[in-house]
Amino acid sequence: MAELERPERLQIMLTTDELAALENWRFEKRMPSRSAAVRELLRRGLSSDGFLTAEHGVKSQEFGVLPEGDGKTSDRPSE
User: Fold this and answer.
1) How many CB atoms lie within 10 A of CB 17?
2) Which of 2, 20, 70, 77 has the greatest CB tally within 10 Å of its CB?
3) Quick one: which of 22, 16, 9, 14 has its CA closest to 60?
4) Would you tell me how many other CB atoms lie within 10 Å of the CB of residue 75?
5) Separation CA 48–CA 43 (nearest Å)
6) Positive or negative, the Cα torsion across 62, 67, 73, 79?
7) Furthest C-alpha separation in the chain
8) Where does the chain have alpha helices with state H?
9) Cα 12 from Cα 35, distance rounded (Å)
10) What distance, in Å, lies between the first and last C-alpha atoms of the chain?
11) What is the C-alpha separation between 19 and 1, in angstroms, rounded?
12) 29-43: per-residue pLDDT in tens?
């Protein structure tokens, strides 16, 4: 069997609203797949300034995709 070009697999859990936001962005940008869209968003995020460094003891559930104020999870841990 041929060796995979991307042999590492990453699994993430999203809310229904987070998945809808990803899908809407993907279709708006005409990305060929969810994986391609996630890789592009990761590339953009990792190349941006001012990224968040998590404090000790912060839980995964405290990080979200959508902004606060609409009943959704915050994109920053509570301070």
Assistant:
1) 15
2) 77
3) 14
4) 13
5) 9
6) positive
7) 49
8) 16-28, 34-47
9) 11
10) 49
11) 33
12) 999 999 999 999 999
| pLDDT single digits (tens) 44-70 | 888 887 666 778 888 888 877 788 655
Helix-strand-coil percent breakdown of the chain, rounded to 5? Answer: 40, 0, 60
Q: Is the separation of the CB atoms in 37 and 31 below 8 Å?
A: yes
Residue 38 corresponds to which tokens in the numbers above?
Answer: 């996630």
User: Which band of pLDDT confidence, cut at 50, 70 and 90, is reported for residue 78?
Assistant: very low
State the Cα–Cα distance between residues 5 and 30, nearest whole angstrom.
22
Those residues whose C-beta lies under 8 Å from the C-beta of residue 67, and which sit 6 or more positions away, are: 74, 75
pTM: 0.68
pLDDT band at 17 (very low <50, low <70, confident <90, very high): very high
CA distances from 15 to 19, 40, 60, 61, 63 (A): 6, 20, 13, 11, 12
